[in-house]
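Question (not urgent): is this output format expected?
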Amino acid sequence: MKPGLEIGQTATIQTKVTPDMFAQFDGKVVHPAYSTVSMIYHMEWASREIILPFLEEHEEGMGGAVSAKHISPSIAGDELTITAELIRYDANIVITEVSVFQDTNLVGIGEVKQVILPKQKIAEMLKQQMNPYEKNGL
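Got this back:
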């Protein structure tokens, strides 16, 4: 990683809740509200924004863990602000604390762990997960 990553750095993204973000399973909407899955996606995205300026050309970040609490609902059209703050950084592990707000209403909070690895290492890890037929070119 490039130098300069420091505890307390923040990154913010904004989004508007749309129907594709509703809580749904197998294409069936459970309720027309911002889903926890979408919230976690946005938490990871905001956290990624923190590391992007510091990644070397040969590096990439991978998700390592997410913990989240979905506190209050949001509906279509709500504008959300998702802010990640770097709270721990040790070698290649980056931990952020993330909050999601709709105006002053707290929608969710969580923590995201990212692991910074060489792209080659990630490629090797993924290749090991391929089924035996793909590994052998069958």
